[in-house]
Design goal:
9-stranded antiparallel β-sheet, alpha+beta, 5-stranded antiparallel β-sheet, disordered C terminus, about 325 residues, binds copper (II) ion, about 15% helix
Length: about 325
């Protein structure tokens, strides 16, 4: 058996054992092509290691039911599969438990499919709406903004089913320039608008978050409905990009929800830590995205801020760890 075959077989074994890590380990390889060689000593240990903890990390169905959205590429029988697309496009399918592409979807927030992408350093957020082909393939002008490993989230509801968010890693080749996560701030600007955040998310309970929009020092009171609301808020957790779609309070035209300047949300985050919030709002006929970093819960509990190191070619060890599944797995 040549080395390449052996390593490839080992990688497949890892993928089978740590199904949820497959997307990271597999798709990170083009960015860090040397990663496979680092598996070899680990693989040699693997055979003699009783490896007692591994079962608790692999595909626990009860555990998956309690996970935040977007961490799994396959859940409840549905799987997100990127497919080849012409340059400049992004295409994927959702397959069902029979392996066939799903073609029936419910409309939620005005659309049958919400595709959200962010690079793994939490930069480059985009929220777009692909078109469904008769063969079950979703296509859209590529929202992937530059080199790196991106997380693509499909937020959808299959016909007759429950809402589901699947996530898959997609690699854009090229020289990666990781960006540090911006520091927490209560105010940000985008496209000439100033957006101010009040409220702090608290783990395990619903917390009010209010975003207030102004322009040139004046409150904006004529926000335009976008996807059935005056704002859409997505939160991504630093470290694993757990996905939270936060629902606004009230809907346009209900007689009590103002068209700005404040848009209110009820947010519940799954843990303390750093999150990046992305508010989509519509004004002047265009959709704008305001971004914030927030610390949820006890700030001291936040993980060390080392964004980008996992996908930096010069920092191979963390990337190799990512391919081995959950931190603390102990596979050394
Ligand atoms: Cu959407």
């Amino acid at each position: 058996m040549n080395t390449a075959t052996k390593l490839s077989g080992f990688a497949l074994g890892l993928a089978a054992m740590f199904g949820t890590a497959y997307g990271v380990g597999h798709l990170a390889d083009p960015v860090t092509p040397a990663a496979d060689t680092r598996h070899e000593p680990a693989g040699a240990d693997h055979g003699s290691d009783p490896h007692g903890g591994s079962d608790s990390h692999g595909g626990d169905p009860a555990g998956a039911a309690h996970l935040p959205g977007g961490l799994l590429v396959s859940d409840r029988g549905y799987t997100m599969q990127p497919v080849d697309a012409p340059t400049g496009q992004f295409a994927f399918r959702i397959t069902g438990s029979d392996g066939a592409p799903v073609t029936g979807y419910e409309v939620a927030h005005d659309k049958r499919m919400h595709l959200i992408v962010a690079r793994r350093d939490l930069s480059g957020f985009r929220h777009v709406h692909p078109e469904l082909g008769a063969d079950g393939t979703w296509r859209v002008d590529s929202p992937l903004g530059g080199p790196g490993v991106w997380r693509a989230f499909a937020d959808f509801t299959p016909s007759g089913g429950e809402p589901l968010t699947l996530g898959v890693d997609v690699t854009v080749p090229g020289q990666l320039q990781p960006r540090p996560l911006p520091a927490p701030a209560a105010s940000t600007t985008v496209d000439g608008y100033t957006v101010t955040l009040t409220g702090t998310p608290q783990p395990g309970r619903t917390s009010p978050l209010t975003l207030t929009v102004s322009r040139d020092g004046k409150p904006v009171t004529d926000l335009e409905p976008y996807l059935g609301a005056y704002g859409h808020l997505v939160a991504l957790r630093q470290g694993d990009l757990a996905y939270l779609h936060v629902h606004p309070e009230g809907v346009p035209g209900d007689g009590r929800t103002p068209a700005g300047p404040a848009v209110s949300f009820a947010a519940e985050v799954p843990s303390a830590g750093s999150y990046r919030l992305y508010l989509d709002f519509r004004h002047g006929g265009a959709v704008h995205t305001a971004e914030f970093t927030v610390l949820a819960g006890d700030a001291s509990a936040a993980p060390a801020s080392t964004p980008g190191t996992r996908t930096t070619p010069t920092a191979p060890t963390p990337t190799a760890d990512a391919g081995h599944g959950a931190p603390g797995h102990g596979h050394n």
